[in-house]
Design goal:
Chain A: GO terms for molecular function: ABC-type quaternary ammonium compound transporting activity; ATP binding; ATP hydrolysis activity. The complex is a heterodimer of chains A (about 350) and B (about 260). Helices cover about 30% and strands about 25% of the residues of chain A. By secondary structure, chain A is of the alpha/beta class. Chain B is globular and about 65 Å long. The relative contact order of chain B is 0.12. The model of chain B is unreliable at about 240-250 and about 250-255 (pLDDT under 50). Classes of the chains: A alpha/beta (about 350), B mainly alpha (about 260). Bound molecules: adenosine-5'-diphosphate and magnesium ion (MG).
Chain lengths: ~350, ~260
């Protein structure tokens, strides 16, 4: 548990970056600090490991006042991940990861062995261990940054916009893997981002800060979307918050229709096959690949990949209402495709049915 | 003196350099080998002293960001007129030694050489430490390194390429300037230059110059080899070609899948 107790930071030039912040980050959970640029997120985070000393107030790490021990000893118990990873250019990946264990006096062979384990754990090929940071992509460096922060198995992790500098596709991968990792490790995490979507996706609780370093609202992501406390939070959370809130509502047992399908490679279906001029194409394992139009003239003898419309997203059975609704809205046939855990076709639903369900629940 | 005289001079200089008699010392004359040794001696002493002063100072100034004016002052000293300073120092210092040893000449010479060698080492060490990326320094402190550990384990290794280049330029300057030792009666390769000039023995004078240049080249090569082994490949960027191609491919695969 990390607890801010009236923590204030006033910089020498008079800027009040954080103003009387009181907030608790519960053990084993992800607390996200989010807010517009310059609202004091980084300052708040860095006061925890005393990279910045609070002007007044106290920050507690469980029952310890963080001001009561030497800063470097405090920091060795706290994992720290920053935006551009900050890997040591002169050290190999494995030695970068082993840094804190070595600082703590652990034996070199053991520290390296643990580092190797972590390199794999964050999804990197062990072959990277002997390389240098300059030989890695931004996304890979960021994984190493996470592995390095985890190396001494600290109960607490601080992360300052760790995924902001990578492109959206990699960012999504990193976020997914981060959540999976946290699922296994159960660290107490304080995570800073300016991206409300990231905050909502990753946070067990989200603290919205306003410029001037004041806490505007602390809530679980679903509550934040449903009940912003004021105009600032409502504006920051964004316009389509109603739609995004569906992301926290499980679709539950949504009834699906059986959806006719044709295998890729099979003979082109006859005119008017499927429903309303569309038939779903699946691969040999029954995984949906795309939609084939059947209302027009036949385009060939067999169904090939090139003929398919791939615009539609797939909703996982038991996933969120948002995913199901999105599958409907993005599908050229207007029918949202639902798949099981292994990606095989279960059936389809229409947007109308999803909306009825939302109304019934609302 | 024009084109006609130039070519014979090359042969005469080569002749002077390749005469085994010039390489050995006699009871009256120190040969090339002896003067080379003396020249290396002056240079090594000056470089070691300069390194002992400038390296820690540059590291400390770079790490703390304080007293940066010291670097500016040192750089201003680069404009020092060496011969003038040397003569002045000899006039001040040598009377204290009553001519019993050559310390009265050696100390002024070394002072001048040290003063020349400090600025490049100091300013490059300072710049090398300053240039370490803020994110890297931040991560180092954030992981719980002490000031000393950040300096020794992170800033120094990353500053090494610049430190080496500062040291190499100091070394070239010291080797070239150490010829002035001979101006105040000491040995060194400058002896051939000054004697050659005085005796209008130009092959000897040019030969002396060639020897200084050769010494500088060989010394630079040796330090370059040391640098290759001391500086981390991660900093110098010398990766095995195949692994770096691999990782670029791997990076593309990761980012696009
Ligand atoms: N060292 C500093 N000196 C003066 N003001 C600072 C300093 N660091 C940050 N600030 C100011 O404090 C405020 C909060 O900064 P920061 O915590 O970095 O915000 P965020 O991470 O939310 O973008 C900003 O107005 C910023 O300009
Ligand atoms: Mg910030």
């Amino acid at each position: 548990m990390i607890r801010f107790d009236g923590a204030t930071k006033r910089y020498p030039d008079g800027t009040v970056a954080v103003d009387e912040l009181s907030l608790e980050a519960p053990s084993g959970q992800i607390t996200v600090l989010v807010g517009p640029s310059g609202c004091g997120k980084t300052t708040s985070l860095r006061m925890i490991n005393r990279m910045i000393e609070p002007t007044s107030g106290t920050i507690w790490l469980d029952d310890t006042d963080t001001a009561s021990l030497p800063a470097h000893e405090l920091r060795r118990q706290i994992g720290y991940v920053i935006q551009n990873a900050g890997l040591f250019p002169h050290r190999t990946i494995v030695d970068n990861v082993a840094t804190v264990p070595l600082l703590l006096g652990e034996d070199k062979t053991k520290a390296r062995a643990r580092a190797m384990e972590l390199i794999e754990r964050v999804g990197l090929d062990p072959a990277f261990a002997k390389r240098y940071p300059a030989q890695l992509s931004g996304g890979q460096q960021q994984r190493v940054g996470v592995a390095r922060a985890l190396a001494a198995d600290p109960p607490v992790m601080l992360m300052d916009e760790p995924f902001s500098a990578v492109d959206p596709v990699v960012r999504e991968q990193l976020q997914e893997e981060f959540l999976r990792l946290q699922n296994d490790l159960g660290k107490t995490i304080v995570f800073v981002t300016h991206d409300i979507d990231e905050a909502i996706k990753l946070g067990d609780q989200v603290a919205v800060l306003r410029v001037g370093g004041k806490l505007a609202q602390l809530a679980a992501p679903a509550d934040l979307l449903a009940r912003p406390v004021d105009a600032f939070v409502a504006g920051f959370v964004g316009r389509d918050r109603g739609y995004r809130a569906l992301g926290f509502t499980g679709a539950g047992t949504i009834d699906t229709h059986q959806e006719p399908s044709v295998a890729v490679g099979a003979a082109y279906p006859g005119h008017g096959a499927g429903i309303d001029g569309w038939i779903l194409a699946v691969d040999a394992d029954g995984k949906p690949q795309g939609w084939l139009p059947t209302g027009e003239e036949q385009r060939g003898d067999v169904v090939t990949d090139a003929m398919l419309y791939r615009g539609g997203t797939l909703a996982a059975q038991g996933g969120s209402l948002r995913a199901v609704l999105d599958a409907c809205l993005s599908s050229p046939s207007g029918r949202g495709v639902v798949v099981d855990d292994s990606g095989r076709l279960v059936g389809s639903v229409t947007a109308r049915e999803v909306l009825d369900l939302i109304e019934k629940r609302g | 003196m024009a084109a006609g005289g130039a070519q014979p001079m090359i042969f005469k200089t080569l002749g002077w350099l390749t005469d085994p008699g010039h390489w050995r010392s006699t009871p009256f004359d120190t040969g090339i080998l002896g003067q080379l040794g003396a020249h290396v001696g002056f240079s090594v002493i000056a470089l070691v002293i300069a390194l002992v002063i400038a390296l820690p100072a540059g590291l400390a100034i770079g790490h703390t960001g304080r007293a940066t004016w010291v670097v500016s002052v040192a750089n201003a000293v680069r404009a020092l007129p060496t011969i003038g300073a040397l003569v002045l120092l000899v006039v001040i210092i040598s009377p204290h030694f009553y001519g019993r040893t050559n310390a009265g000449f050696l100390i002024p010479t070394e002072i001048v050489l040290v003063v020349l060698a400090i600025p490049p080492i100091l300013s490059n060490t300072y710049a090398g430490v300053q240039n370490v990326s803020p994110a890297v320094r931040d991560a180092a402190f954030g992981m719980g390194m002490t000031d000393r550990q950040v300096l020794g384990r992170v800033e120094l290794p990353n500053a090494l390429p610049l430190i080496f280049s500062g040291f190499r330029s100091a070394m070239l300057q010291v080797i070239a300037t150490a010829t002035i030792a001979s101006y105040v009666t000491l040995g060194g390769l400058g002896r051939f230059i000054y004697d050659g000039l005085a005796q209008k023995d130009y092959p000897q004078m040019i030969g002396g110059g060639v020897l200084v240049a050769a010494l500088a080249l060989v010394a630079d090569l040796l330090v370059a080899v040391v640098q290759r082994y001391v500086v981390s490949r991660g900093v110098s960027g010398r990766f095995h070609r195949n692994t770096s191609v691999d990782s670029r491919v791997a990076a593309l695969v990761e980012e696009n899948v």
